[in-house]
C-alpha cells in the first residue's frame, strides 16, 4: 500500500491518483452527452493486399472529440462507457455511421471495399444486435458482406455461449467475421473450428519484433500457416517497418494494416487514398 511505502511516494501516489481521478470524472460527466452532442468520430485505417497493394478494406476506429480534453482515443473512454452502460448506444452509433460512410464512398464512385468495425462484449449480448446491423445495412443499400465484424478472443471467452450464438447469427446474415488481436488473452483454439471466421488478425505484439526476434517470427509464421490451412485470410496488425513487411510477404501473409502504410485518418483524407486504390510501402 502507498501509505506504508513512505511519505514521498504517498504524495506522488495521491497526486497521480488525483490526476487520473479528475480525468475519469471529466470523462464520466461528459460521456452521457457525447452522442447527442455529436462528439464521436470514426477514423479509418486501410487494410492492404500484400500481393498488389490494393486497398481491400479499412478498419473504423472511434475517437471522441471531448469538450475540454481534446481528441481522445478509445483506450481513454471505452472501458468507462462499458462500466456506465453507454457502450451499446455508442456501438450502435458506430454501426450506423460506418454504414453511412461506406455507402457515401460507394455513391461517390470510389473503389468497393469492406469496412471492419469493433464490437464490445456487451453488444454481442444485445438482443437486437442483428436487427441493428440489418437496419443499418439496408437503409444504406449495402450488402451484408461489405461489413466485417471484429471480435477478440477475450470477448468470446467472456461469455462463450451468447457470443457464439451472436456470431452464428451474424455469419448467417452474410457479414464477414474477423478474429482480432489473435494470440493474446486467454483463449482456446477450439472455437476456430466451432465457427468459420473469414479473417484472422495477428496481434501487434507478435509483429513488433519480427524478423529479429526468432520466437515472434516463429509464432507469426505458425499463425499464417494455420489461418491458411483453415481457409482464413490472415491480416498482420501494427506493421511499422519494411523488414516486417518483407518477412510477412515472404511468409504468405494476405493483408497488412499498420503505420508503415497509413495511420488511422479522418474520412475526407481516407477518400483521397481510396480514390488511388492502392498503397505500397514508400508511396
Ligand atoms: P484494435 O481493434 O486492435 O485496433 C487496432 C489499434 O492499433 C488501433 O488503435 C490502431 O490505431 C492501432 N494501430 C494500427 N496500426 C498500428 C501501428 O503500426 N503501430 C501502432 N503502435 N499502433 C497501430 P486505437 O484506434 O487506439 O484503438 C484501440 C482499440 O480500441 C482497438 O484495438 C479496439 O479494441 C478498440 N476500439 C476502437 N474503436 C472501437 C469501437 O468503435 N468500438 C469498440 N467497442 N472498441 C473500439
Ligand atoms: Mg480491431
Ligand atoms: Mg487488434
Ligand atoms: Mg485491441
Description:
- Helix 3 (87-107) packs parallel to helix 5 (129-139).
- Residues 1-6 have low confidence and may be disordered.
- This protein has helices at residues 7-34, 78-83, 87-107, 121-124, 129-139, 153-158, 160-173, 191-194, 204-207, 214-229, 242-250, 267-276, and strands at 40-49, 55-66, 70-72, 114-118, 147-152, 176-182, 199-202, 233-237, 255-257.
- Strand 2 and strand 3 form a beta hairpin.
- The protein has 283 residues and is an alpha/beta fold.
- The chain has an 8-stranded mixed barrel, surrounded by 5 helices.
- The protein contains 12 helices and 9 strands.
- One magnesium ion binds next to loops.
- The percentage of residues in β strands lies in 15-25%
The helix content, as a percent range, equals 40-55%
The pLDDT mean sits at 92
Runs with pLDDT <50, length 5+?
1-6
Write down the overall geometry. Answer: globular
User: What ligand species are in this complex?
Assistant: ligand C2E, magnesium ion
What is the count of DSSP helices, taking H or I runs of 4+ residues? 12
Overall number of strands: 9
The largest β sheet comes out as: 8 strands, mixed, barrel
Secondary structure category? alpha/beta
Radius of gyration: 20 Å
Strand order of the largest sheet: 1-2-4-5-6-7-8-9
List the helices and strands and how they pair.
Layout: H1 7-34, E1 40-49, E2 55-66, E3 70-72, H2 78-83, H3 87-107, E4 114-118, H4 121-124, H5 129-139, E5 147-152, H6 153-158, H7 160-173, E6 176-182, H8 191-194, E7 199-202, H9 204-207, H10 214-229, E8 233-237, H11 242-250, E9 255-257, H12 267-276
Parallel strand pairs: 2-4, 4-5, 5-6, 6-7, 7-8, 8-9
Antiparallel strand pairs: 1-2, 1-9, 2-3
Helix pairs in contact: 3-5
Amino acid at each position: 500500500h502507498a501509505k506504508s511505502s513512505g511519505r514521498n511516494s504517498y504524495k506522488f501516489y495521491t497526486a497521480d491518483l488525483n490526476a487520473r481521478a479528475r480525468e475519469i470524472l471529466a470523462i464520466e460527466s461528459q460521456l452521457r452527452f457525447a452522442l447527442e452532442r455529436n462528439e464521436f468520430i470514426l477514423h479509418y485505417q486501410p487494410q492492404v493486399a500484400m500481393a498488389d497493394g490494393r486497398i481491400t478494406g479499412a478498419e473504423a476506429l472511434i475517437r471522441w472529440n471531448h469538450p475540454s480534453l481534446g481528441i481522445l482515443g478509445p483506450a481513454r473512454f471505452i472501458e468507462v462507457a462499458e462500466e456506465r452502460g453507454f457502450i451499446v448506444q455508442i456501438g450502435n452509433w458506430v454501426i450506423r455511421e460506418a454504414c453511412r460512410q461506406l455507402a457515401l464512398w460507394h455513391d461517390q464512385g470510389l473503389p468497393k471495399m469492406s469496412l471492419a468495425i469493433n464490437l464490445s462484449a456487451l453488444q454481442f449480448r444485445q438482443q437486437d444486435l442483428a436487427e441493428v446491423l440489418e437496419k443499418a445495412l439496408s437503409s444504406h443499400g449495402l450488402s451484408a458482406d461489405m461489413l466485417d465484424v471484429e471480435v477478440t478472443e477475450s470477448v468470446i471467452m467472456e461469455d462463450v455461449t451468447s457470443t457464439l450464438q451472436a456470431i452464428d447469427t451474424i455469419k448467417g446474415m452474410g457479414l464477414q467475421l474477423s478474429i482480432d488481436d489473435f494470440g493474446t488473452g486467454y483463449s482456446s483454439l477450439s472455437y476456430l473450428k466451432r465457427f468459420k471466421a473469414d479473417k484472422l488478425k495477428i496481434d501487434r505484439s507478435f509483429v513488433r519484433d519480427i524478423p529479429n526476434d526468432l520466437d515472434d517470427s516463429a509464432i507469426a509464421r505458425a499463425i499464417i500457416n494455420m489461418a491458411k490451412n483453415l481457409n482464413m485470410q490472415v491480416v498482420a496488425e501494427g506493421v511499422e517497418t519494411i523488414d516486417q513487411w518483407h518477412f510477412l510477404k515472404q511468409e504468405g501473409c494476405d493483408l497488412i494494416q499498420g503505420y508503415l502504410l497509413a495511420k488511422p485518418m479522418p474520412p475526407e483524407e481516407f477518400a483521397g487514398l481510396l480514390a488511388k486504390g492502392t498503397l505500397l510501402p514508400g508511396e
